[in-house]
Amino acid sequence: MGSKRILVIGGAGYIGSHFAHYARKAGFDITVMDNLSKGHRSAIRGADFFNADLNDFSALADHFSDNHYEAIFHFAASCLVGESMADPAQYYRNNIVAAYNMLEAMRASHHDRIVFSSTCAVYGMPRTLPLREDHLKDPISPYGKTKLAIEWMLEDYSRAYGIRSACLRYFNAAGCEPSAGLGEDHRPESHLIPNVVRFALGLDDKLVIFGNDYPTFDGSCIRDYIHVTDLANAHLRALDALEDQALIRLNLGTGSGFSNFQIVDAVSRISGTDLNPEIGPRRPGDPAELVADPSEAWRILEWRPVRSDLDAIISEVWTWFSEQPNGYPD
Ligand SMILES: NC(=O)c1ccc[n+]([C@@H]2O[C@H](COP(=O)([O-])OP(=O)(O)OC[C@H]3O[C@@H](n4cnc5c(N)ncnc54)[C@H](O)[C@@H]3O)[C@@H](O)[C@H]2O)c1
Ligand SMILES: O=c1ccn([C@@H]2O[C@H](COP(=O)(O)OP(=O)(O)O[C@H]3O[C@H](CO)[C@@H](O)[C@H](O)[C@H]3O)[C@@H](O)[C@H]2O)c(=O)[nH]1
């Protein structure tokens, strides 16, 4: 039997490139679609590459009608909470309009399986912690609102047109695969762990922690860090689960949270450097604490995070930036 081909949209980006690498090792043939607005050509390994923008409907429709994929994995998005507060229009266009284009191209070409990158930002301010899938969805950032709107679109496309969908609500993606030449390279970088590591390595001269007056045990925000390879594994399990279930909505996290100051302390300890970040104002759109109840994913996907130990994550990110201080060459 020949291997199965899947389409990884946003596969030149951070999580998508790790997923494509993992899925290729698991025996899938991969086509990556990306407009390289945030991703890197050199993060795509051993895959066909289709350079296209999801906002170009005719390019999408032609591609979908000329190719058959077992499933679509949709990672592409604008995905920064703070940026979405300042520029919501970008988020409504590049997330909702783009997802609509993709779904219409799928529908016209009879593609019927999609795994979608959703987020814990769909919940908004937690009323109860850890967050379960049935928690109220009341997103507080345009980013979270666009992701929830796409979840609703997928629900309707499933009911009316039979497109089966898994919406995987990631908590904070972290870690990398330096041995495969894969890392996290956003420009500028906005995520906490790479920023702390870059500061410790002397690659950046400033580190700001946004807010020290949150109602948490040390005043900084708390997040649940899940390794990108654990995410990748859950995606392939979700594809399998779509055989039996037409609609899947699951949290992907570890169930444990670390505060921003704990991340700084862990990098200080591992690197042997005493890090003194500046304290800045709170970043708009940031809830104080986001921690998953991942038990539903554990049950339905028979999945457990196995790469998400914090010290291991920090060591990998350290290795990546030590070996490639300027990130990917393109
Ligand atoms: N990073 C996290 O912690 C996190 C957490 C929860 C959910 N997510 C979701 O996971 C997905 C991937 O996140 P990431 O951190 O890898 O982001 P990323 O920015 O590294 O990757 C996104 C990729 O999509 C591409 N892209 C964006 N708009 C496009 C368009 N219109 N057409 C074609 N390609 C386009 C970019 O060039 C990039 O390669 C996103 O949907 C994000 O919302 C991320
Ligand atoms: O230089 C920095 C960077 C971040 N932070 C703080 O660190 C925490 C984590 O921030 P970040 O790493 O930017 O992740 P989030 O804002 O939590 O967002 C990520 O995680 C979300 C799920 O929680 C996803 O939906 C988003 O796509 C993804 O960017 C927050 O309190 C930030 O304010 C700092 O204090 N200084």
Automatic annotation (TrEMBL):
Q: Which reaction does it catalyse?
A: UDP-alpha-D-glucose = UDP-alpha-D-galactose
Q: Name one GO biological process term.
A: galactose catabolic process via UDP-galactose, Leloir pathway
Give the superkingdom in one word. Answer: Bacteria
InterPro entries per UniProt: Epimerase_deHydtase (IPR001509), NAD(P)-bd_dom_sf (IPR036291), UDP_G4E (IPR005886)
Which pathway does it serve? Answer: Carbohydrate metabolism; galactose metabolism
Q: Where does the NAD-dependent epimerase/dehydratase domain start and stop, copy by copy?
A: 6-244
What does this protein need as cofactor? NAD(+)
A GO molecular function for this record? UDP-glucose 4-epimerase activity
Transferase listed as a keyword: no
Asked if the keyword Calcium belongs to this entry, the reply reads no
Task: For this UniProt record, give its keywords in alphabetical order, as a comma-separated list.
Answer: Carbohydrate metabolism, Isomerase, NAD
The protein's Enzyme Commission number: 5.1.3.2
Tell me which family the UniProt entry assigns to this protein: Belongs to the NAD(P)-dependent epimerase/dehydratase family.
Q: What interactions and quaternary structure are annotated?
A: Homodimer.
Name of the protein in its database record = UDP-glucose 4-epimerase
Q: Which organism is it from?
A: Desulfomonile tiedjei (strain ATCC 49306 / DSM 6799 / DCB-1)
